[in-house]
Specification:
Blueprint: H1 2-6, H2 9-20, E1 72-74, E2 81-87, E3 90-93, E4 97-105, E5 108-111, E6 116-124, E7 127-141, E8 144-158, E9 161-164, E10 168-176, E11 179-181, E12 185-190
Parallel strand pairs: 1-3, 2-4, 3-5, 4-6, 5-7, 6-7, 7-8, 8-9, 8-10, 9-11, 10-12
């Protein structure tokens, strides 16, 4: 009887090894809901902002206006929120959104929507080009963001660059070596070392 009970051990060992190969891989997962590009409106076909930040990376082959570039993944705005969580890649948000969230590293994101509430950039070495946003929050390191306008700008982290083409209503910077450029600012709070602000 003992001999028969040990005969199934090789089968059990093979099953354990086979199931072990099904284990989840480490790293962030990206959920992307592609949408068909919408017909560009006159507001979306205007030229991209003329500001030129000094990011650690630069945007790649993105056409002007709202049309997606050859290497861009179009992100929809389900429930008013567009979210990108990735390591690398180029993405486009062209729908009006209450909130756009970028969490990742080495991502290029264009936001060409006419109306965006909050734009949150988290991670490092991301490049973001956006139109007008109500509020901009940048957290992390080495991110470069340029917008046409933003009512409030909050920068937390190190070595981030933010260029806003119009006057900022309220600015808060914490961290080190962050640079914010704008023609003016209503109120500001800057703490940390090596930060620059208008």
């Amino acid at each position: 009887m003992r001999r028969r009970s040990l005969a199934f051990l090789p089968v059990v060992a093979a099953a354990i090894l086979a199931l072990g190969a099904c284990a989840a891989e480490p790293g962030a997962r990206l959920t992307v809901v592609p949408t068909a590009p919408a017909t560009a409106s006159p507001a979306q076909t205007s030229a991209a902002p003329s500001m030129t930040p000094t990011p650690t990376r630069t945007p790649t082959s993105a056409p002007e206006g709202g049309a997606p570039g050859a290497d861009e993944v179009v992100i929809g705005c389900a429930g008013g929120v567009a979210a990108v969580n990735a390591d690398g890649g180029s993405f486009l948000v062209s729908d009006d959104c209450t909130r756009v969230i970028l969490g990742g590293n080495g991502v290029t994101l264009r936001v060409t929507a006419a109306a965006v509430g909050d734009l949150a950039v988290q991670g490092q070495n991301n490049v973001v080009v956006a139109g007008e946003v109500s509020a901009l929050t940048v957290e992390g390191q080495g991110n470069a963001v340029q917008t046409k306008a933003s009512g409030t700008v909050t920068v937390r982290g190190n070595s981030n660059t933010v260029d806003v083409a119009s006057t900022i209503g309220a600015l808060e910077i914490t961290g080190a070596s962050n640079a914010v450029a704008a023609p003016g600012v209503g109120s500001k709070s800057v703490s940390g070392e090596g930060n620059t602000a208008p």
